[in-house]
């Protein structure tokens, strides 16, 4: 985002924090309604452009949002939306993407209020691994030749009754608006967002063999000392590594695998 959109996004997020002062039901309703607003904006280009048009006064944009969504969403959602449309956005896309982020954060805060955010984070991570290990499923969920509603319905059939409601809502919305790096990456982003709301960072670990609970705890403790912040460790078994582990934290990559050591040895001998 450019500077104007970063400032606008920050103010919108402050409005969300102020709005979510009630029970977890307020957060859940706000998140679901923000996703519904985004669906309307995705379908109506003229509306989303008008709501983010900084050549028009903020009061006029707020009035338009009230006319379109007033009475159809809760007071909390309307307050967040009014703040968002009153900001000056560098791009219309930044405005809509921020509403998506606010919806995600609201739903995750609802899960946190219920003491279920750990479960949601773990389920999102595991969904990412399931999709990556199943190319046919990944293709079906990322097939833009199919309507977004069809991709969403496919995922809903797979998840109903098997994951937290919050996990299902986040995953289905991500698949419906999929773009960029793919389904697995979208789920990983959501898992990382859940960790960040708990003031933690996520370590994505590929291990040649399944790690014991003691090994996971030792790795988490070592990474916490390195990053000076609590670390959530997500492990994926990858026998192709032969031995050892590969750890990714954000943009940092720590390759302690046998394959990695062999590659570095070949490079040194070349």
From TrEMBL:
GO cellular component, one term: proton-transporting ATP synthase complex
Record bears the keyword Membrane: yes
Keywords: ATP synthesis, Cell membrane, CF(1), Hydrogen ion transport, Ion transport, Membrane, Transport
PROSITE patterns: ATPASE_DELTA (PS00389)
MF term (GO), any: proton-transporting ATP synthase activity, rotational mechanism
Source organism superkingdom: Bacteria
Subcellular location(s) per record: Cell membrane; Membrane
Membrane topology: Peripheral membrane protein
Family indicated by similarity: Belongs to the ATPase delta chain family.
Function of the protein: F(1)F(0) ATP synthase produces ATP from ADP in the presence of a proton or sodium gradient. F-type ATPases consist of two structural domains, F(1) containing the extramembraneous catalytic core and F(0) containing the membrane proton channel, linked together by a central stalk and a peripheral stalk. During catalysis, ATP synthesis in the catalytic domain of F(1) is coupled via a rotary mechanism of the central stalk subunits to proton translocation. This protein is part of the stalk that links CF(0) to CF(1). It either transmits conformational changes from CF(0) to CF(1) or is implicated in proton conduction.
Listed PANTHER family: ATP SYNTHASE DELTA CHAIN
NCBIfam families: ATP_synt_delta, PRK13430.1
Record protein name field: ATP synthase subunit delta
Native organism: Nocardia otitidiscaviarum
Gene from which the chain derives: atpH
């Amino acid at each position: 985002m450019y500077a104007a959109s970063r400032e606008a996004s920050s103010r919108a997020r402050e409005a969300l924090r102020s709005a979510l002062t009630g029970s977890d039901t307020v957060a859940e309703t706000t998140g679901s309604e923000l996703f519904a607003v985004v669906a309307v904006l995705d379908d109506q280009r003229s509306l989303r452009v008008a709501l983010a048009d900084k050549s028009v006064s903020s009061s006029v944009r707020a009035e338009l949002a009230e006319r379109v969504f007033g009475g159809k969403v809760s007071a909390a959602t309307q307050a967040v939306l009014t703040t968002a449309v009153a900001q000056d956005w560098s791009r219309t896309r930044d405005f809509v993407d921020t509403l998506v982020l606010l919806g995600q954060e609201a739903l995750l805060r609802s899960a946190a209020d219920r003491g279920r955010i750990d479960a949601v984070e773990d389920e999102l991570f595991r969904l990412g691994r399931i999709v990556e290990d199943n190319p046919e499923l990944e293709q079906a969920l990322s097939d833009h030749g199919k309507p977004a509603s069809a991709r969403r319905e496919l995922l809903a059939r797979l998840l109903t009754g098997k994951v937290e409601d919050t996990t299902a809502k986040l995953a289905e919305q991500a698949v419906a608006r999929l773009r960029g790096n793919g389904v697995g990456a979208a789920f990983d982003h959501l898992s990382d967002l859940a960790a960040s709301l708990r003031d933690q960072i996520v370590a994505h670990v590929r291990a040649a063999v399944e790690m014991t609970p003691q090994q996971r705890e030792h790795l988490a403790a070592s990474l916490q000392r390195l990053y000076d912040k609590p670390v959530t460790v997500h492990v994926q078994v990858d026998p192709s590594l032969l031995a050892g582990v590969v750890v990714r934290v954000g943009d940092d990559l720590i390759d302690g695998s046998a394959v990695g050591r062999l590659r570095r040895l070949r490079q040194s001998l070349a």
